[in-house]
Amino acid sequence: xxxxxATVLSWSYALLLAAPLYYLVVSALKSNxxxxxxxxxxPAQWLWENFGTAWRTADLGRALLxxxxxxxxxxxxxxVLAVPAAYALARQNNxxxxxxxxxxxxxxxxxxxxxLIPTVVLAIEMGLFGTREFxxxxxxxxxxxxxxxxxxxxxxxxPPALVESAALDGAGHWRLLTSVFVPIARPxxxxxxxxxxxxxxxxxxxxxxxxxxxxxxxxxxxxxxxxVSDATNLGVLAAxxxxxxxxxxxxxxxxxxxxxxxxxxxxxxx
Length: 270
Fold this sequence. Notes:
MetI-like fold; 2 domains; about 75% helix; about 0% strand; globular
């Protein structure tokens, strides 16, 4: 009975999560009338042209490229800064390390909207207001507190005996980081990458305020609202949303599989 109950609950939860996704996809292939009259039914007429209309109207091709560029560069910068910082904090257990860790933790106390005006002023002073480059620098700064704290916890699981053995073999800090800590903390690196990818891809407030709505620099989240008007075609809007969600969903699926493989490999080695 317990196994049956667990199976029923698992499938019920999966269906609950899949229902909004199904509604979004089928709505992308319908007209406004059919969306309201037959919301969960399959389309009577499959309007594949909704995707083409959304693509052209919101210029989603350029917007998707901008989002990919900003997200990838921001993730690389985040990892380049967070991984060495986490390594240093994981190797130390003194008062200074605890103060630095507490400083990173304090970053969670600052709500994003409270930093909006100072960030805009900073972008203007740097001459980067309305550019993707500032977004690439700002996003890693906002992601560092969580990234450093998560990676620090993963790196503290590295066995001290393994570190001592590598150090006796002549490994310096760089060799320890790249050959010992990063491979063992790979699930943490992948977890941070997935988490920050979702955060960077869905970022809207600062993208709209700082990067702006110009077609050559706006991200996909800023481009999507251009499909909304007094006579919004909800099918086209849903199609645009599907196109915006699809890349990050594919990336999430691939990286999540890599994280599971890393966790399994670590369990087997252990």
